[in-house]
Specification:
By secondary structure, this protein is an alpha/beta fold. It has a single domain, classed as Flavodoxin domain (Rossmann fold), CATH 3.40.50.360. The chain contains four helices and six strands. Strands 1, 2, 3, 4, 5 and 6 form a six-stranded parallel β-sheet that branches. Helix 1 packs across helix 4. It is globular, with a radius of gyration of 14 Å. It starts with a strand and ends with a helix. One of its GO terms (molecular function) is electron transfer activity. Belongs to the flavodoxin family. This is Flavodoxin.
């Protein structure tokens, strides 16, 4: 069975909700899903997955959350060729560097040799109806990329 691993960092619960929306969408597409907070999993566990997803928030003006920095650094050391990845997350449009952590993780995944399976999804604070639709389309795109 196809396995998707979702790792997230969430301070207010917004990004956890985003991760849950993606997980549910993947499950609805007959994908097995494991979801973990970034502090409860090692980056190398992505080697067991077919689809790798990071959902992160951006702290302050473009900073990675403290709790996901080690995961981010370890991710870049992995070889994930043949894996499909996607990145989503939340931020606040008040800041100039809106959702920069999403872009940082996209670049980190690119170093692993993994294949980008969906465009990044950036959510302003918490997921509204349009964001939920975008996250469901994100999940569908990941699964479609896997079957190419």
């Amino acid at each position: 069975m196809t396995l998707a691993k979702i790792v997230y960092a969430s301070m207010t619960g917004n990004t956890e909700e985003i991760a849950d929306i993606v997980a549910e969408a993947l499950e609805n597409l007959a994908i097995d899903v494991e979801i973990n907070e970034c502090t409860q999993v090692d980056a190398d566990e992505f080697t067991d997955a077919d689809i790798c997803v990071v959902a992160t928030y951006t702290y302050d003006d473009g900073d990675l959350p403290d709790e996901i920095v080690d995961f981010y650094e370890d991710l870049q050391e992995l070889s994930l060729s043949g894996k499909i990845y996607g990145v989503c997350g939340s931020g606040d449009t008040f800041y100039d560097e809106f959702c920069k952590s999403v872009d940082d993780f996209d670049a980190a995944f690119a170093k692993t040799g993994a294949i980008k399976g969906a465009e990044n999804v950036k959510v302003d604070l918490n997921a509204e109806e349009e964001d939920i639709e975008n996250l469901e389309a994100f999940a569908k795109s990941l699964v479609e990329k896997l079957s190419e």
